[in-house]
Amino acid sequence: MQRAPVTVEEQLLQKAIKEECTWENLPKRIQAILSSKEEWHRRIIESCIKKRIQWNSCFARKVCKESEYYEEMMRYLRKNLALFPYHLAEYICRVMRLSPFRYYCDMIFEVMRNACN
């Protein structure tokens, strides 16, 4: 479940991401919050991943490669023990060669390994 942005700055960041603002077009107030253009790109990718948006229909397509985006998304989903993103299965299964079964096996392995430590 998505949590609502708490601060005004977070709300401004979300609005800028939704409007697909480039670093150069960001208001100075938002640029002051972020340390660099790379930080802005990281926030864009993070926001799209949390919403589980397909790469070709999100703002992240303008700041990172498709493979990097989906690899980062799968790391995020595994870390948070999230369900397999079936709406993205065409890319994940075909290109990344990761089936839902393999995804859940890897997840269970990680949980069991962490439980032993």
TrEMBL record:
Query: Which positions fall inside the FAM91 N-terminal domain?
Result: 17-114
InterPro entries named among the record's database cross-references: FAM91, FAM91_N_dom
Locate the transmembrane regions by residue number. none
A Pfam entry, by short name: FAM91_N
Lineage top rank: taxon: Eukaryota
Protein name per UniProt: FAM91 N-terminal domain-containing protein
What is the source species?
Vigna angularis var. angularis
